[in-house]
Amino acid sequence: AYFLITWDIIRYSASQGYYHVGRGSGANSIVAYCLKITDVDPIELNLYFERFLNAQRTSPPDFDIDYSWDEREDVQDYIFKRYGSQHTALLGTMSTFKDRSIIREIGKVMGLPKSEIDGFTDQTRAAINRNNDTFKKITAIYERMANMPNQRSIHAGGVLISEDPITYYTALDLPPKGMATVQWDMYEAEKIGFDKYDILSQRGIGHIKMAVKLVEENQQRKIDIHQVKSFMKDPVVNAQLKTGNTIGCFYIESPAMRQLIRKLDCDNYLILVAASSIIRPGVASSGMMGEYIKYHHAPQTVKYLHPVMEEQLKETYGVMVYQEDVIKVCIHFAGMDGTDADILRRGMSGKYRSKKEFDRLVERFFEEAKKLGRPDDVVAEVWRQVSSFAGYSFSKAHSASFAVESYQSLFLKTYYPKEFMVAVLNNYGGFYNRALYVHELIKAGATVHLPCVNNSDSIVNITDVDAYLGFVGVHGLNEAFIECIPEERRQNGLYRSLEDLIKRTGIGLEQAIILIRVGALRFTGKSKKELLWAVHLLMGTKIKPVNETELFCIEAKNYSLPVLVNTQLEDAYHELEILGFSLSMSMFDLLETDYRGELCTGDLINHLGQLVRMVGLYVCEKTVLTKTNKKMWFGTFLDVEGNFFDTVHFPNSTPAYPFRGAGCYLMVGKVMQEFGSASIEVLKFAKLPILNNPIMEL
What we know:
15 strands
């Protein structure tokens, strides 16, 4: 029934033209591949069925089905209607108190003003806060509240279908979403014996689907995006992958992943599958990532513990990269059967039914290995590696499913970069902020225009190489006008003037001012200040919208105004305020200084070990803890040429949180390289001031 219901869901979504990605341990099943639940061939990848289902497994099997963020709700609605509201419910979960939310909640109870609470959660004030008596009290309570239940919520995607009415098992909540939700979580559902259907959403599928549609509209080319095997063999796509130019591509666009791809010279599917697993935090911090990269570049130096280890792990140079590797070793090295091997793997990640049973399987590992004549010292070392790795390993089937979607998006980025980046923007981006994806769209060769009432739609559109930003990204613009302005234009033609826009849309003064300040009425040929003057005159006379077609078009009265100077700097500040980024001037153009650093990203590799001064535009950062529990940071920046470079901020040179928000930074540091990938170990770091807003100086 589990397979049939899952197939029924896939059948429905396919009939609606929805894209999906089937992943999780279910991809280890050839039946799932044949039913098109997944796109991963388990025979080709030598996946183990026992990872999905085995004779001793008490928990139900597992499929994760991803849909585009804007299609999932319809799939859920189908499930509720198909299997009945009496037998269907969303899975609940319990959110807990974590991190800054605890500080905020305690601060509210103590009656602290919002500004003081904000100060306690500000990383840049960490050193000051440590000596604050009030903060010390909060910290003492914090330690007791951490991970305590906060409130009931809804599981990310779990749907339960019961044979008996679901109210036989639980009372139901009815959240604003309108779909009944059980009051317990996945662990209780598993104990009762429910099958959980994970219907999830992600932006990556939305990127792919919209990009395919845009290519057909803009270039009159139809793409079969499901021909993934041909994408994997395409030398141009693989060359693009090897460079790490993967911004916007599902799962492989983060700074850490792009670095890993470059370090591996990753240029094929199997290496990407491995990279998708070793990027996981546990694998990376254990040293397995470094071992894998080292042996990838020098496979002849690998020393296998035993011939069986070479036979089973040659693909990954003797390094256990996947959960399936643990199962392989247990079966082929220790002589265990597939069922016991998977139970042992689950036990090492803390998912065992009883400690006694787990200990019995550990003993069996050693006993069976001894029966096969394995040397005691080798068995002990193999077990050490297995036990240290299994707790945080990643399913190969999961990695393979991710890599399939990565290749689909990579194919589109390689051959149709403009349409792909527009699709990324219209599906609310990914790892980075909107400004970065606009930057990538410009790099792809598009001419990006500010919103315009006569050219823009609610979302970004593209015709040939001209891309117009949509009204969705305009801060403060009412949702009704986001849809109304382009729809009215489609129905009744281009807007002729500011007055015409007001009459036809009924837009108010505040909303009209937003459009003027962002440059959306530049088609009139008038400056922003002239338009602002005019809109106040027009709205002051309280012109009401005329819904009827006018017999005669009466021209608006024109007044003679003094020369009103409008500067590019003013435009840039308007755009920063309303869009969150500027097209008129780059952040480098806005700097008070003309200094742009001694060198750019492309020249870093030629200055290894040297101290350099660089200026970079902040993109993102990541905080990690060292082995001594001190904080260090990894940063990602753009140079003046628009290319990425990475920084490392060690605790000895950067004792406190160094970043001060968006903007450009001057840094002094030593150029380092690891496996051919250059980065800067920052020694000095400061944010650069920008030109003052001329409007604020009036």
